């Protein structure tokens, strides 16, 4: 039961699912409906355990490598994209692949390939080991350098300082990316690249909303998984704005002590976190504080990505 003084909760706008995440989840759901379980998914379809568990209940089987998938099986590649080597292994096993790679990630991969084909050393600004970065790394032939900090710029060895290009992981912080780009331009004045255009619209919008939120709250809660890059960046932006910020995946991770002497709490969610998780956090808060919930004015997102043509065709055929 709620006790003590009321708590004003201000929700960021926009928050939660982006078009790429919605598309990826819908692809798995549509594949399950069309072909029946099991549908194998290489890597988490999106970085959110609640989403993964829900799809598991419907018959999705998540694996880390294609070697774990029986030959000829229906297989979905996650929203983060895969390397050519992964695609080649899937083809060798005759897997029936539906590619759920986010179209914005595919754009980054195309740009990287184009630069490499033109003879540039390509700098990929991103976190080594992240699924998106590893997939993009494996799509680009030629000289590729992965870095995430301005300091690392001094350490890379390029063939020709006049032929350097850069691309970026889609889910990085705008601030972090701009700092790295500035360092690259200082060392390689002739460098070419897309500025911050590779950071996806959803990442930018959610980061802008956090910056606006930070001006009116005392603490910030970000709903999302620890392995979600965009969720982690939201928490970091809150901290950088001088607001104690916490990343949680489930309501039970929220420590009531965080709210001691707090009257205004900001809440947002990463692009891979469902709105149901946000509402679960609000319900948890209501067990010990009386809430007054409001939503910031913000950007209304109207982006929609089409499903793969095969799913649309086969759905029509079954109608």
Folded structure, characterized:
The chain has 319 residues and is an alpha/beta fold. The chain is built from ten helices and twelve strands. The protein has helices spanning 19-35, 49-58, 84-92, 103-117, 131-137, 174-187, 201-214, 229-240, 275-285, 309-318; strands at residues 7-11, 39-42, 60-63, 74-77, 96-99, 121-125, 144-147, 164-168, 219-223, 245-248, 264-269, 291-295. The strands form three sheets. The protein has a five-stranded parallel β-sheet, sandwiched between helices. Strand 2, helix 2 (49-58) and strand 3 (60-63) form a beta-alpha-beta unit. Helix 7 (201-214) runs parallel beside helix 8. It is flat, with a radius of gyration of 21 Å. The termini are far apart. The mean pLDDT is 93.
